[in-house]
Amino acid sequence: MMIRRNRILRQSPAIRAMVAETVLTANDFIAPLFITEGNGVKEEIPSMLNYYSMSIDNTVAEVKELWNMGIKSVLLFIKCKDELKDNKGTEALNPGGLMQRSIKAIKDACPEMLVMTDVALDPFSSYGHDGIVENGEIVNDATVEVLAKMSVSHAEAGADIVAPSDMMDGRILAIREALEQSGFTKTGIMSYSAKYASCFYGPFRDALDSAPGFGDKKTYQMDYANRREAIKETLMDVEEGADIVMVKPAMAYLDIIREVKDAVDVPVSAYHVSGEYAMIKAAAKMGWLNEEKAILESLTGIKRAGADLIATYFAKDAAKLLNRQ
Ligand code: PBG
What is the domain extent for residue 257? Predict the structure, then answer.
């Protein structure tokens, strides 16, 4: 005679909903936004179907819409004009730069929306690298100095949380100290702590025209063969002052998300990256996957693995689906 019948708890939508261990909500999402110069601009990113880079005016309208759908945070990336790129990140520090203007416009229009900003040199770099290049190498310490200044510049413009995505050593401490010295004691740091050198960033680099001009990013981003290194990186970032840590990409790294979650006592975010978005979009377009189901299953899986927050290009779609449920 069976005394344990596991199917009892699966027999109806009501009971399944009651015993669900992981529940996605719009509060979990961080919506990445690509911002470009101009007015009235809304351009589809070729390798990211139905995802757009927008000028500030359209971005502001989008942010209001996201807020009304329950999304609490956006993560800003800007597309820098080629003629402004150099090897020192000059434009990244421009108080009137596209990033700084975007932050102000969004905070003016929607003050409660948490504005997170990408801190890295690649969109501003004539070499397409996340750091300053000397003799074919990406130099660490000089880059960290610029990243710290860049973070202060974002804070001055009104950013709530700066998000360094560069993987230089020691940058979290340098950023925290620079923020403190400038009086930005309420500005948070979301560190891309375990960011792997991944082919899944391809569509993003199309969007920002930021592909590395030479070589790859393997001397700073992590080797995807490694697991313990992710814990080491993340623990150091927490010690240096990270408020939130991140694992990136997400779906091929669910084991890392879980281990990081077990190792730290700060919120863990995961970045469901552009290539992961593109895969689902492409398969859905071919009629090979049900897009809505694939979105919810993927994001629930990432949360189940241990992510408290998920940066995802599906933020809006998923919020819509959840509001409908
Ligand atoms: C750049 C940066 C990248 C992403 C976020 N910040 C690309 C890279 O490291 O080359 C990738 C995001 C995505 O693919 O969705 N520092």
Answer: 26-324
- The model's pTM is 0.97
Q: Cα of 21 to ligand 1 centre, how many Å?
A: 31
Give the CATH number of the domain where residue 240 resides: 3.20.20.70
**β-bridge partners, 149:** none
- Is residue 118 within 6 Å of ligand 1 at its C-beta? yes
Q: Is 122 in the pocket of ligand 1 (CB under 6 A)?
A: yes
Q: Probe ligand 1: pick from 273, 274, 276, 313, max atoms within 8 Å of CB?
A: 273
DSSP string, 202-257: HHHHHHHT---SSS-STTTSBPTT-SHHHHHHHHHHHHHT-SEEEEESSGGGHHHH
- Number of separate domains in the chain: 1
Judge whether 248 counts as a catalytic residue.
Answer: yes
Domain assignment present for residue 284? The answer is yes
Instruction: Please tell me the distance between residue 204's alpha carbon and the centre of ligand 1 in angstroms.
Output: 6
pLDDT tens-place string over residues 254-309: 999 999 999 999 999 999 999 999 999 999 999 999 999 999 999 999 999 999 99
